[in-house]
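USER:
I would value a second opinion on how I read folds in token form. Give me a protein, with the fold worked out from its sequence. Write it directly below this note and I will take it from there.

ASSISTANT:
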Amino acid sequence: MPAFFEAELWNLANPELWVGVGLVIFLLILMMAGAFRMAAASLDSKADKIRADLDEAARIRAEAEALLADIQRQSAEAEAQSKAVMEAAVDQARRVAEDARAKLEEELALRTRLAERRIEAAEAEAAAQVRTAAIDLAARATEHVLAQRLASAKSDPLIDSAIAQLAGKLQ
């Protein structure tokens, strides 16, 4: 390729010269037709559109960050509320368990007292039955002994003397 200031480049038979001239003419035609202004306007409009898209993206990002912060706040509130509900449920369960334990102890104490009363009543009834049986046995034994004595002796001197004294005391 010949240099710009050498005579060989400016020779009319040199094809490189004609390519350069054609290029300059083409660029002049483009400049006169306003292609560079249109290209610049197109690039400016694309830059404006890109700028608007970037602004919109920044606005959407700011909204998303605000929404994320709101969601995180709501999540923290929900977590705190669920923690409070759990603590309340645990407290209530503990109270219910304590109430149930107290009621169970009262019920057991009541049943124990009732059982003790029944046992005492059964003991008293058994003692009364034993006394009654003992009295009945003693009466039968006495009757038997007296029947044997009366059968063996028609009259008992002690009884006869007691009857005689009784007759004197009654008058």
Remarks:
- The chain has three helices and no strands.
- The two ends are 187 Å apart (CA to CA).
- Helices lie at 15-33, 35-152, 157-170.
- The CA atoms of residues 19 and 25 lie 10 Å apart.
